[in-house]
Design a protein that fits this description.
The chain has 268 residues and is of the alpha/beta class. 32% of the residues lie in helices and 22% in strands.
Length: 268
């Protein structure tokens, strides 16, 4: 598939996920009555329950970290969340920026924007907005945001060079980003890389960690820091859909691995 076709796959899957609860996402990426895949979308997610501003209705279990914990967000900041989904990270960020700050969520799935706005309306916030748009071509002005966050989304973007260039563009001159994302070490087996369902599930969209960090530096960001790194353990029953038993053994015993990282960098 070309990049536009991959975007449509991701958009379709996350549109379906928007209507599901976190519990359903733990058992099926495509809905409780569908058998199109057996991938647990919450396999990467961290526990948000102790975070100020956390709203369980906005937590679909789709993240792979808690970027707001390391984002150095201050009261009064304007924060942008890329791939904001149902608003989970936006509501946590809002608790930090307070009434004098502002939070913008960007997502390209209509169903997610609708769900986020429903959650915002229930909570009664007036300093949060949700905007539909593509991370590769954000419908947002230059030099607007103090902090950009994102949670397990940028690896789904086909052109990561464009994504980080856009982050650079929309950040203020002294701004910074902090994102949690999925990366790989070593060469991911070709069968996993090519499979569109796994791509939408945040595995095959991942690139080499060194390449990921180099893209960030190429776009001019400074002080690149990895705050957290953890191994993503893919269950044998999932790997078995794509690999033979011997290939699974080689995959688990080799240098190749799938990781979530939380990384920050500054525009100077």
């Amino acid at each position: 598939m070309n990049p536009n076709e991959l975007k449509l796959v991701v958009q379709e899957k996350y549109g379906e996920i928007a209507s599901q609860s976190k519990l359903i996402n733990q058992s099926s990426c495509c809905g409780s009555t569908s058998s199109c895949c057996d991938f647990d979308y919450t396999i990467f997610s961290d526990d948000y329950s102790g975070q100020e501003g956390y709203n369980p209705e906005a937590d679909l279990g789709l993240g792979c970290g808690i970027p707001t914990n390391y984002a150095a967000i201050k009261k009064g900041d304007h924060v942008l969340d890329l791939g904001s989904g149902a608003g989970n990270d936006c509501f946590v960020a809002n608790a930090i920026v307070g009434e004098t700050g502002k939070v913008t969520g960007l997502d390209f799935t209509d169903a997610m924007i609708d769900k986020a706005n429903e959650n915002k309306q229930k909570l009664g916030f007036n300093n949060i907005e949700f905007v539909k748009g593509d991370i590769e071509e954000m419908p947002l002005p230059d030099n607007r945001f103090d902090v950009v966050v994102s949670n397990c989304v940028l690896n789904l973007v086909p052109d990561k060079h464009k994504a980080f260039a856009e982050i650079m563009r929309v950040l203020k001159s002294d701004g910074h980003f902090c994102v949690s994302d999925v990366v790989i070490k070593g060469e991911l087996p070709e069968k996993l890389r090519k499979d569109a369902e796994m791509y939408a599930g945040c595995v095959s969209g991942a690139i080499e960690m060194d390449e990921y960090l180099e893209i960030i530096r190429e776009k001019g960001f400074q002080n690149v820091t990895i705050h957290k790194q953890k191994v993503i353990a893919i269950p044998d029953e999932v790997l078995g859909n794509y690999l033979s038993k011997k290939e699974i053994e080689d995959f688990k015993n080799g240098e190749t691995g799938i990781f979530s990282i939380t990384v920050s960098a500054y525009k100077v």
